[in-house]
Amino acid sequence: MNLHENYSLKNYNTFGVDVKARYFIDITSYNELRSLLSSDLIKTNHFLLLGSGSNILFTKDYDGIIIKYSVKGINIIDETQDHIIVEAAGGEIWEDLVTYAVGKEYYGIENLSLIPGTVGAAPIQNIGAYGVELKDAFHHLESLEISTGLIRTFSKTECNFQYRNSIFKNELKNKCIITKVTLKLSKVKKINLSYKSLSDELKDVRHDDLTIKLVSDTVKKIRQSKLPDPRVMGNAGSFFKNPELTNAQFIEFQKRFPDAAYFKQSEDSYKIAAGWLIEKCGFKGKRIGNTGAYEKQALIIVNYGGASGSEVKELAEKIQNDVLNIFGIFLDFEVNIV
Ligand SMILES: Cc1cc2nc3c(=O)[nH]c(=O)nc-3n(C[C@H](O)[C@H](O)[C@H](O)COP(=O)(O)OP(=O)(O)OC[C@H]3O[C@@H](n4cnc5c(N)ncnc54)[C@H](O)[C@@H]3O)c2cc1C
Description:
Elements: E1 3-8, E2 20-27, H1 30-37, H2 40-43, E3 47-50, E4 56-57, E5 62-69, E6 74-79, E7 83-89, H3 94-104, E8 128-129, E9 132-133, H4 134-137, E10 138-145, E11 151-155, H5 156-159, E12 176-186, H6 196-201, H7 212-226, E13 234-238, E14 244-246, H8 247-256, E15 262-264, E16 269-272, H9 274-280, E17 287-288, E18 291-293, E19 300-303, H10 309-327, E20 336-337
Parallel strand pairs: 2-5, 3-5, 4-20
Antiparallel strand pairs: 1-2, 6-7, 7-12, 8-9, 10-11, 10-12, 13-19, 14-16, 15-16, 17-18, 18-19
């Protein structure tokens, strides 16, 4: 096993926060995982699973084992005339899986282009963007329970997917490692332009000329114009979730704030754009120390360089407080705080 002690995590989290792990192990094969699980090390230490570190904020050194899961592989496990069932290993890079699917013209995840991170982390918060969530293409996943070494398969229903949430962010948080994710993708052309900025961008393209590659490239183009590149400016994408209001709560809210940005979520609920709430509290583009809310999208907290995790968390809590005081709405963190 390739075990490191007192290891810097600076290059393993997209915030670029410089903390140390007591132990760090990069698992590149299933056998390595098995031998880690049968070792004394795992029995006598806390542990934390890590993918690409693009949805995590380390606020202090980690006094345990960081288990980075890097096992790779993409396989077709079944095929019908209309569908393909693709299994990807948990350490596969999500964008590599999207590129593979787009290249083969397997429809379903092209709107999720350019989301950083690993395949194994994608179900944790049911990643979503541009009108599609992982759950829409999800078939099942395989996991390994760390304390027992037992393999368990989860169906879509068992994952309890919700908006940026799943069973793995709650009851099963850090209890099992997601080793394989299986998707059901369409071989038949299916383009989803339900998201306004995407349909606006492609409004002049005839339906026959819309290709999976064009949709994927357009999503990438929009993302690159709006989101800070973590290689240039540390961040973990949206720091907060968009808050959800019931119809009754929304009517009251809209009476008080008629110009609020929102969208209808379901028959019974609306989502308010958290970025709008944060912007109205005066945080957009405002720098506090080494951190701040991004100038183009207030939902993203950035590290201008040298920020500590607790400095970022402090700003996030200040934003939470101000939004609560002004709008009476509590903003949940989307990012995992460690
Ligand atoms: C610029 C930018 C843009 C982003 N845009 C989006 C977006 O559009 N939509 C979206 O949904 N997210 C977005 N994100 C957030 C992030 O990309 C996703 O949440 C991604 O799935 C995280 O993957 P990761 O491998 O980096 O996970 P990590 O940050 O390493 O881990 C996240 C959580 O998953 C757990 N975990 C990781 N791997 C495993 C595993 N194999 N088994 C069990 N648990 C595991 C960790 O313990 C942690 O709790 C963005 C982030 C950035 C930096």
